[in-house]
């Protein structure tokens, strides 16, 4: 005889084979869904009563029993509840078995018109909704950390880099706001992708729906989901909710990794731009002087784990026929792991940003290197009527001259030298207002610029939006 109440068509159940039982179970990771599973069951049971498939007394017994089970799970601690029996495979069957043990016959009616296939899809959608808002608030906290740092250190003038080569001067705040923007977009992406998947599958049954008069609208009314899935087959076959969520997490992990890489570089002795709190560096077991940016390196490293989960989910789905296949059970391992990793990394990033201190004097030491103001000089010529392509060539010849002569700043040339070396007569004494990083950062005027005006505008907007909280 099988212990599995749903395997009576067979002479033996997989729980008698230790390897098979261990192979098929998801209980070792799906107990996280217990609250969502119980909420879904209560909504389903109320609907069953409304359409006359169970009595009011049976509903009361089911609701009471499920309520007790939830309390027991919470009292014991989710992993330690005595009702988890791995032979029953998963969270759904354990809770149903515990309910039947508690209330008898009425409990045996709960699964009317329902399958684990629509149950698990609904549980996962509800779990993901909550997880989405947790990731979002963690990201919003990280964004605040960037703005707080920018509020203090944002006016420091520094080089920007393309190809990791010196590009144009910016203010630090311009760069900090750029990270905040990237993470802001991660928040919007989480929202947008969840809207696509904010669906209830309950009432789809195993694949085809049910011949019983289930009222899916009544079930939906009682759940924190937005709409009813429109196809019983598609909604039990799909794991779009998992894939979209993990994709959004992977994008956040990617931005975290890029940020970590940049700050690791800024922390090198060669750059010396940045120090972070001692909590977030480690020593070396051999080299006594070391302060290694291990937390940043681990943020960068764990991005690979999140990508792996995304690829695992996509690959898991690619060969499946349109209906439930047990492969889909694996979704939760990947979704939960990606969520845990990203939550930890975002929290860690927030701590690091709040501990960060930029070294203005070190940044300034070499600020005159790299001809950061060359583009500004070309734009000066544009304001004097020179076509940009021509201006670019003139400034190029000046840079070339400086390098040949061992001059490290364009501002060290006189107006006459500029005219003579470039052959362009458009230079005048006001050219010096366009040279030097401090001048350049005040000259940017395009919306969204990374100079002073762009940064200050963004800072004011953020301060205004957060005035009440501060
Ligand atoms: N634990 C399973 C899962 O996570 C439940 C679905 C099992 N369904 C089935 N038809 N065998 O997907």
Give the helices and strands as they follow along the chain: HHHHHHEEHEHEHHEHHEHHHHHH
Strand order of the largest sheet: 1-2
Number of strands: 6
Spatial gap, N to C terminus: 65 Å
Radius of gyration: 31 Å
Q: Summarize the amount of helix as a percent range.
A: 55-70%
Amount of beta strand: under 5%
Bound ions, cofactors and other small molecules, one mention each: arginine
Descriptors for this entry?
single chain, 470 residues, mainly alpha, two-stranded antiparallel sheet, two-stranded parallel ribbon, 18 helices, 59% helix, elongated, binds arginine
Explain this structure to me?
The protein has 470 residues and is mostly helical. 59% of the residues lie in helices and 4% in strands. The chain is built from 18 helices and 6 strands. The strands form 3 sheets. The protein has a two-stranded antiparallel sheet with strand order 1-2. Strands 3-4 form a two-stranded parallel sheet. Strand 3, helix 8 and strand 4 form a beta-alpha-beta unit. Helix 4 crosses helix 5. 41% of the residues are buried. Arginine (ARG) binds next to helix 6.
